[in-house]
Amino acid sequence: MQTTETANQKRSPRKISWDVIRVLAVYSVVIQHITHQSPINHAELGPYPFVLSLQFGASTLLVISAFFICVTIRRGRTGRWLWSRLARLLPAYLVAVVVTYGVSRAVAPAFGWYLPTHTDLLANLTLVQAWSPRFHWIDASYWTLPVQVMAFLVAALLWPRGWVRGARIPVLLWTLLLTPLVIRFLWRQDDAQQWVKSVFDGLALHRVALFGVGVAIWLWTSKRLSGKHLAAYLVAALVAQDAHSYFVDTPSTIAFGVILAGIVAAAGGPDWNLPGLRSLARPIRWLGGISFGVYLVHQELGFVLARFLLDAGVGASGRLVLCVAMAVLLGWAMTGLVERPAHRWLTESGPVVLRRVLATLAATREAIRELPQVPAQPQAASSGGVPTKSVPSPRPVSQPRTAVDDPLSSRELEGVAIASSQVR
Question: Taking 80 as the threshold, does the pLDDT of residue 145 lie above it?
Answer without folding.
Answer: yes
